[in-house]
């Protein structure tokens, strides 16, 4: 046998060695035989061993602890300024890219918008195969926060991913051919899936989203070989007249007021992102989302904690049985999901070693919880908050009077985009710090006294597309500032060690390494490396697009690489951006030997504010209400801001706005994800929306002229 290369772990090397001996030659890297050999070796032992071996990136959060800490140190604080591009790969998308790639012996698997999977040879940057699940474009209207996908799972020769329309699909890792497919959702309801599955003990675990749209959250395990359902766990109780699927739902039902008939809108509690697993304790952990509707006075008029909303829940991965929970935001009113990153670590707290789970969810507090039993250890706000003064010794928030927006406008801090959203954080055990993409996007709430489920009549935000918040986004301007920063947080001292300010919010997830580095992409289109100890910026490169995903690092043939999937989007990124350039989604891969020139930045010509569309000023009021109910999430406020990955209509051509009905009431832009609102909006409604767009654009133009 000749030219046998160094592989990542003994058992992978052994399998490849035996295969090579049998074939009397070495497997050629990137061939189907090579892909089969290396991906077939990803079993339970390999996934457990990922805690100690960072040469590959085997799962969404790198390892079962989801700490995103790589032990690789070839790239370090001493030489990171020498990083250069090795290759870039076009994802052929203009929508949000949120995926974390997984990599095994130089083979990368990554998802793009519309749930398209790509297999890439990192040695060359060339595509091996791609798989398009053909998500119906009308599914986009069900996706609150862009048509994104966060990634895949690998296990025993298969690639697992979930499509936006709710299918869990297993592909042959070598060829990209479909092995099996399961519809995981009730397709009559507005569920979607954007998260990456995980594999624990041969079970493929996937949750779902859609709480804004009135669904009931659950998480499901499927057998990795057959695709058959193994178990399902519901996060909120159903109709009390029916038998409860799990014994703990009877306990949970006591925390809901049945007079609100919460089960008719499902109650929410979707589990659309965060998971982790402790193989020693045989416990998996999942973060639970917000209520449906957001306003608890409508879903549970008598109050109550509304279990298991906004909670961390521990389950047995073998059968899905409930073990414990901790609820960070009882009776959530503000869309304060607990679906953000979960990180497992062993910390010394007050002289004792504790097995903990850490989370910095939307509500602005950093939590340290005992992962063996759910016991509350500590919580401290990592940004300014105004809904709670803190947490008592029992782990309950001390809410501030008035925060529930019962009477008049109330600026909730953080807003519903959260102090930290889905963007992954990382934990470096060498520095003892957690690196959080922290942010503030202010919103002013008001109660919606005229709310009716699944109706746009009251003018609720995006209610015309199916949102059920039970609150109004007030016209009262917020007083707090929009911000974004990289925050290094000490989970033991519960205080900040350092922070780096960014131009705005919605910055990318983080990666920390043994080279004393933190990598992060920014909303203003840079990929950066910082000193993990003090936050000094050590390297940056423009990538042509705002970055929201988290980077990965891995070793191929003895060399360390860093890759980032760049592509602007997500809930905030659909209607706002912070870059001049707007390049399509790409994968960028860097190493110390990289000499490839960066692709040219694509900077579009600035567009003038639309003018000259005839309208009746009397239609502006009704048009405003319709625009908020149907258009604002994607298109933003006309001529206010510059749009995101979806155009701001205040900068459209006059002819397009004059012929708006040809886009709004037809399938003309279906392939781009634009809904057909015929049957929901009339031509007269569109005329009123035109009046709002041009009237607002005229007001902005007048303000700009007066300021000169």
Radius of gyration: 25 Å
- Look at the helices and sheets and give the structural class: alpha+beta
Distance between the termini: 76 Å
User: Which strands sit side by side, in order, in the main sheet?
Assistant: 1-32-33-34-35
Count of extended strands:
38
Strand count, sense and barrel status of the largest sheet are:
5 strands, mixed
Mean pLDDT, nearest integer? Answer: 94
- Detail the poorly predicted runs: 1-25
Number of helical elements: 11
- Can you tell me the overall shape? globular
Walk me through what this model shows.
By secondary structure, the protein is of the alpha+beta class. It contains eleven helices and 38 strands. The strands form ten sheets. Strands 1-32-33-34-35 form a five-stranded mixed sheet, with no helix packed on it. A four-stranded antiparallel sheet has the order 2-38-37-36, with no helix packed on it. A hairpin with a 2-residue loop joins β3 and β4. α7 (620-630) packs across α11. The longest helix is centred in the C-terminal third of the chain and has 25 residues, at 683-707. Mean pLDDT is 94; it is low at 1-25.
Keywords:
708 residues; alpha+beta; five-stranded mixed beta sheet; four-stranded antiparallel beta sheet; 38 strands; disordered N terminus
Topology:
Layout: H1 10-23, H2 32-40, H3 44-49, E1 69-70, E2 84-90, E3 102-104, E4 107-112, E5 116-121, E6 126-131, E7 153-155, E8 158-162, E9 167-172, E10 178-183, E11 198-200, E12 203-206, E13 218-223, E14 229-234, H4 247-253, E15 275-278, E16 283-287, H5 296-299, E17 311-315, E18 322-327, E19 343-349, E20 352-359, E21 365-370, E22 376-381, E23 388-391, E24 397-399, E25 410-412, E26 426-428, E27 433-440, E28 443-447, E29 471-473, E30 483-490, E31 495-501, E32 510-513, E33 517-521, E34 526-531, E35 537-542, E36 552-556, E37 559-566, H6 570-573, E38 586-591, H7 620-630, H8 632-635, H9 654-658, H10 661-664, H11 683-707
Parallel strand pairs: 1-32
Antiparallel strand pairs: 2-38, 3-4, 4-5, 5-6, 7-8, 8-9, 9-10, 11-12, 12-13, 13-14, 15-16, 16-17, 17-18, 19-20, 20-21, 21-22, 23-24, 25-28, 26-27, 27-30, 28-29, 30-31, 32-33, 33-34, 34-35, 36-37, 37-38
Helix pairs in contact: 7-11
């Amino acid at each position: 046998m000749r030219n046998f290369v160094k592989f990542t772990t003994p058992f992978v090397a052994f399998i490849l060695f035996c295969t090579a001996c049998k074939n009397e030659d070495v497997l050629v890297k990137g061939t189907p035989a090579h892909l089969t050999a290396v991906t077939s070796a990803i079993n339970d032992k390999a996934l457990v061993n990922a805690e100690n071996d960072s040469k590959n990136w085997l799962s969404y959060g790198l390892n079962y602890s989801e700490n995103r800490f790589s032990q690789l140190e070839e790239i370090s604080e001493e030489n990171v300024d020498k990083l250069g591009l090795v290759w870039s790969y076009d994802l052929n998308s203009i929508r949000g890219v949120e995926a974390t790639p997984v990599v095994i012996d130089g083979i990368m698997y990554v998802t793009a918008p519309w749930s398209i999977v790509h297999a890439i040879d990192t040695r060359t940057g060339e595509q091996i195969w791609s798989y398009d699940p053909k998500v119906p474009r009308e599914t986009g209207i069900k996706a609150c926060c862009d048509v994104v996908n966060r990634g895949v799972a690998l296990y025993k020769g298969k690639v697992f991913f979930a499509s936006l329309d709710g299918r869990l699909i297993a592909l042959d890792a070598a060829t990209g051919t479909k092995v099996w497919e399961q519809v995981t959702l009730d397709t009559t309801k507005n569920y979607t899936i954007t998260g990456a599955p995980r594999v624990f003990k041969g079970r493929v675990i996937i949750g779902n989203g859609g709480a804004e749209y009135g669904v009931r959250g659950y998480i499901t395990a499927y057998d990795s070989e057959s695709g058959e359902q193994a178990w399902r766990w519901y996060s909120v109780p159903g109709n009390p007249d029916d038998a409860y699927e799990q014994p703990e739902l009877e306990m949970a039902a006591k925390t809901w007021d049945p007079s609100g008939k919460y089960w008719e809108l499902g109650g929410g509690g979707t589990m659309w992102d965060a998971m982790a697993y402790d193989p020693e304790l045989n416990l998996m952990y999942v973060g639970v989302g917000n209520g449906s509707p957001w306003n608890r006075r409508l879903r549970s008029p008598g109050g109550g904690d509304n279990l298991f909303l906004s909670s961390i829940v521990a389950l047995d991965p073998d059968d899905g049985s409930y073990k414990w929970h901790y609820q960070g935001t009882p009776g959530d009113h503000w869309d304060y999901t607990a679906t953000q990153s979960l990180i497992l670590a062993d910390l010394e707290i007050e002289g004792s070693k504790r097995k903990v789970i850490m989370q910095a969810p939307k509500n602005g507090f950093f939590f340290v919880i005992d992962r063996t039993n759910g016991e509350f250890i500590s919580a401290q706000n990592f940004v300014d908050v105004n809904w709670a003064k803190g947490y008592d010794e029992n782990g309950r928030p001390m809410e501030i009077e008035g925060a529930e927006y019962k009477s008049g406008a109330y600026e909730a801090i953080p807003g519903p985009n959260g102090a930290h959203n889905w963007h992954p954080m990382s934990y470096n055990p060498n520095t003892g710090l957690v690196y959080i993409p922290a942010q503030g996007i202010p919103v002013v709430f008001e109660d919606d006294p005229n709310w009716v489920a699944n109706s746009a009549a009251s003018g609720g935000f995006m209610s015309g597309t199916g949102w059920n918040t039970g609150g109004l986004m007030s016209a009262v301007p917020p007083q707090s500032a929009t911000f974004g920063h990289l925050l290094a947080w000490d989970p033991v001292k519960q205080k900040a060690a350092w922070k780096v300010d960014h131009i705005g919010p919605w910055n990318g997830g983080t990666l920390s390494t043994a080279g004393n580095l933190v990598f992060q992409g920014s909303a203003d289109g840079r990929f950066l490396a910082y000193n993990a100890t003090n936050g000094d910026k050590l390297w940056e490169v423009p990538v042509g697009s705002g970055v929201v995903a988290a980077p990965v690092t891995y070793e191929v043939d003895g060399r360390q690489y860093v890759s980032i999937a760049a592509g602007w989007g997500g809930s905030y990124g659909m209607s706002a951006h912070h870059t001049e350039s707007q390049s399509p989604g790409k994968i960028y891969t860097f190493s110390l030997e990289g000499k490839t020139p960066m692709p040219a930045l694509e900077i579009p010509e600035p567009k003038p504010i639309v003018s000259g569309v005839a309208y009746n000023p009397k239609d502006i009021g009704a048009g405003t209400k319709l625009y908020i109910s149907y258009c604002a999430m994607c298109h933003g406020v006309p001529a206010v801001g510059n749009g995101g990955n979806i155009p701001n209509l205040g900068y459209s051509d006059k002819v397009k706005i004059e012929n708006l009905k040809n886009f709004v009431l037809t399938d003309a832009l279906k392939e781009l994800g634009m809904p057909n609102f015929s049957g929901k909006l009339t031509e007269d409604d569109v005329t009123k929306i035109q009046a709002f767009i041009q009237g607002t654009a005229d007001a902005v133009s007048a303000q700009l002229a007066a300021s000169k």
